[in-house]
Amino acid sequence: MYRGKAKHILGDIAEGDRVKVINGGKVYNGILMPRSELGDSRHVVIKLANGYNIGFNIDNIKIELISVREKEDKEKKVEEESSPENKPCVSILGTGGTIASKIDYMSGAVHPAFSTSEIVNAVPELEDIASLNTEIVFNILSENMTPEHWRIIAKEVVKAMNKSSGVVVAHGTDTLAYTASAIAFMLSDIPKPVVFVGSQRSSDRPSSDASLNLISAVRVALSDIAEVVSVMHAGSSDEGCAIHRATKVRKMHSSRRDAFKSIDSLPIGEVIGDKITTFQEYSR
Length: 284
Fold this sequence. Notes:
This protein is α+β, with helices and mostly antiparallel strands. It contains 6 helices and 17 strands. The chain folds into 2 domains: about 5-65, Roll (SH3 type barrels), CATH 2.30.30; about 75-280, L-asparaginase, N-terminal domain (Rossmann fold), CATH 3.40.50.1170.
């Protein structure tokens, strides 16, 4: 939600509209992205064609409308989402962390401020893959995660499995491997995928890995991999994501996008585009 000077500069331009931003003699075309209610009032964010988000200080730009986003019939949308004849359902549980954070463009600090639904709004490609149920379990930094939080997550995952084809858990990366492993031991022999996902860089940063990680996680949640896994960048580029068994994965670097590695084992597989390739046996 834009406010203050940013809202004034945008005028009738709405979130989701295609816009042209002129900044320092360069032209950027993209989709105007939503801002958190906690976001400052002096920046706008657009999603470029390559999938990256980029933020602009409104004092330095000229912004023009290219095309208006097509409005959807809300009643039709609700009916489609509830119809079993349409896309399968994936539950996304938010617990906090960088994937559920925003950057303060004034200070450069990152704050846990995005709700899970805001993340989905920031990655509209998700709606082409699945019907989504989103829920905030809690919103904490992962270094504050405790065994009591693990028990709560396990209970919420079980509830979510009962109403969806698979479950995605958005989690901070610092302790993601610990939580995923704990949940794997607590929920053995599960019938559906439970996919932990995080990001090394916040969702509204141009170099964020959140979008690809989340899209890949939802695809894995619709697969036949009936295990607890984590899905994170496989390399430093945006080529694809690796699928790591929860009890084998470890974070190996503080900031690299491909920081997560399977230890003494190959990953279960990888996600490149809409294709999942597996490298070893897994529970089905």
